[in-house]
Amino acid sequence: MTQCILIGAPVQEGASQRGSRMGPDALRTAGLVEELANLGHSVEDRGDVMPKIRTLPKHHNSAIHHLNEVAAWTAELSETAYQGAKDGTPIFMGGDHSLAAGTIPGIARAAADAGKPLFVLWLDAHPDYHTLDTTKSGNLHGTPVAYFTGQSGFEPHFPKVMRPVDPKNICMMGLRSVDRDEVKAIQAAGIQLNDMRALDEFGIAAPLRSFLARVQEANGWLHISLDVDFLDPSIAPAVGTTVPGGATFREAHLIMEMVEEAGLLRSLDIVELNPFLDERGRTARLLVDLTASLFGRRVLDRMTGNYP
User: Fold this and answer.
1) Is 12 helix (H, G, I), strand (E, B) or coil?
2) CA spacing 20 to 30 A to 130: which of 141, 192, 291, 302?
3) What is the set of active-site residues?
């Protein structure tokens, strides 16, 4: 069984709406610890990370906000993730998606220490491939992929990425809200893109199976970064960046089940859960449900129950 290490990252400064800082406690309240333990896993909740904020030089892009805070979260989470990956399988409970600027570089360092390449399955409506120079909204949850792949423009404000992730080792699924400049940049980088049109036309199983085969062939580590807006807002309303046409309940579970069967998962982000926008906790419970599928629960294990 797996040594699951839960780490709360109540960051909300990377987003435009408040509320995602309540995400870690919502996941705990929804029974994440109990679900994992019931599946036979060892679970350690290490509580919430708290960054040490310092004042940085102002960036020339005046749209950027909360740079000091997000940079501090990035540094703290990178070290926390590095240690967590050495101790077990860390599950990062967010918090907005800027947390991936810290978690993924930390996991990549641990993977490199083990002589393994890191692969990332990015489940999101957005590619988050802006840099500090290109972001127009100034919301730094739109920048982590550019950062952890080693794109320019982040230093000296953000820590140096010691082990950049190869863009060709990233598979994005569920894209349906992408800036034109981002489209060109991610295509040029060689990231594997699967927007919702492609998933509608060809399904989820084939591209995911191909990606997992690449991870297996490279003897790599797999990190999943799951954004609530990957899911259709009809089943997951608790996110500040709702985009219609997302993954269905069964599509999302199929991804989790296929990853679990492949036996490749080494770490997980659960991000952008905003309980302030939820409906009787339904999104938090769905995320716990998906995590259970990722850690071994089968369709046949499901008991009949109420779903709000």
Assistant:
1) coil
2) 291
3) 97, 124, 126, 128, 141, 227, 229, 272
